Amino acid sequence: MRWMISAGEASGDLHAAQLIKALLRLDPTSRFTFLGGDEMAEASGVQPLIHYRRMAFMGFSEILRNLGGIFDNLKVAKEALRRERHDALVLVDYPSFNLKLAKEAVKLGVPVYWYISPKVWAWKEWRVNSIKKYVRRVLSILPFEVEYFKGKGMEVVYVGNPSREEIDERISRLPSRSAFIDAIGLDGKPYLLLAPGSRKGEIRNNLPVMLHAAKAFPQYPVVVAGAPGIDPHFYKTVLEGIREPHARRDEGVEEAPTVIFGKTFELMRYAEGALVTSGTATLECALMGTPQVVCYRANGSRLSYNIMKRLIHVPYVSLPNLITGREIVHEALVHLCTPQILIRELGKVLPGGEGHKAQLEGYKLMRERLGTNPAAETAAKALNKDLMI
After folding, report:
1. Residues 39 and 13 sit within 8 Å (Cβ to Cβ)
2. Which of 116, 231, 246, 294 is paired with 280 by a 20 to 30 Å CA distance?
3. Distance between CA atoms of 62 and 367, rounded to whole angstroms?
4. Measuring CA to CA, which residue among 267, 272, 256 is closest to residue 175?
5. What are the pLDDT digits (tens) for 129-157?
6. Ramachandran sector of residue 89 (left: φ over 0; alpha: ψ -120 to 50; beta: rest)
7. What is the 3-state secondary structure (H, E, C) of 169-207?
8. Backbone dihedral angles phi then psi of residue 335, each to the nearest 5 degrees
9. What average pLDDT is seen over the chain?
């Protein structure tokens, strides 16, 4: 089989790499062309057609500034489709770009599948019509999506959740808590984790408010999870901007927190608590069993918050809450993402807090809802079966 896989972000690169491995186990002669990153390159043995670092743009202004690069990426991807005539195109999230690529694939007679589908049940529901038109089958990783897509007259199958199995596998290989904490230079001290997102806009908006809130818990050192593909200097610039100008250390201004790259899973697993930007990381944190508060600052105001609430068609934005159908993690969104609210809510779920036990019980319920299907393996089998019909 000749596969083309399109993943535009770090999380998609990780999940698509597992799918590539599963496809190779079923058919070792499989060949791949892909848009993605280093994880997919290692799994497939070939380099990406386009690396996701050239694709991961967020927000209208950032997209506008990089419009030329986006069009170039799409042109390269379309040319590869036309040149190599793959047996299937597998899309991994990243809807704005991937829908355009899907349209081209259908013109060429290449069947299209979506693994880790866009969250159209939450917002931009108008995309459903395009997905229905271009995508043969959705391979869902969220159990509540099945009813939604079936209700829209689409072919969909729940294959399991890749984050659950990936995290469980990684947990089994982690060093001990004490060894890890010593390795990052904290001398055995429990710490708070700030996970401000994987894009510059998210980091710029969320890290300052997270850091201000974390200062209310001086018993815990603060560590920031550095995102892959983001230059360390960018974090330095953001953190320096948080400090008061002309302030001196002897005036009581704390030193900047440590930013650690390539250790997000370990950091999340062993943190006493975490402030996490809304997204896949909230699910990962819940699977790790780490207390958390969900943040999403986004240069917001009360007006933009009210507009957002009208556009979003679900009662929650974080995956732990959506999967369980109830609030097990607090969502501090837009103008409600303030240091005061984060301090209050984080205090509740830290060890000894009034909401600590309830959140951990919610995590257990979430795991039950996700089930135990090996997602990549199940998806690979579904793809092969469908193409053989």
Report:
1. yes
2. 231
3. 36
4. 267
5. 999 999 999 999 999 999 999 999 999 99
6. beta
7. HHHHHCCCHHHHHHHCCCCCCCCEEEECCCCHHHHHHHH
8. -70, -15
9. 89
Q: Residue 265: which H helix or E strand, with range?
A: helix 264-270
Nearest Cα to 173, choosing from 277, 275, 269? 269
Q: Whole-model pTM? A: 0.80
Tell me the two tokens of residue 170: 């990684």
Q: What is residue 382's DSSP assignment?
A: H
- How does 3-22 read in b/e, with b if 16+ C-beta sit within 10 Å? bbbbbbbbbbbbbbbbbbbb
CA distances from 366 to 164, 312, 320 (A): 10, 22, 6
Local structure of 21: helix, strand or coil: helix
Compute the chain's Rg from CA coordinates: 21
Give the helix/strand (H/E) hosting 238: helix 232-242
Count the neighbouring beta carbons within 10 Å of the beta carbon of residue 30. 17
Which tokens hold the place of 370?
């996700």
Is residue 317 within 8 A of residue 122, CB to CB? The reply is yes
Which run of H or of E encompasses 258? strand 258-261
**What pLDDT score does 6 carry?**
96
Mean per-residue pLDDT, 322-332: 95
Distances (CA, A) of 215 to 208, 222, 271, 323: 11, 8, 16, 32
Euclidean distance between CA atoms 339 and 343, whole angstroms: 6
Strand partners, 294: 276, 331
Give the residues across from 157 on adjacent strands. Answer: 139
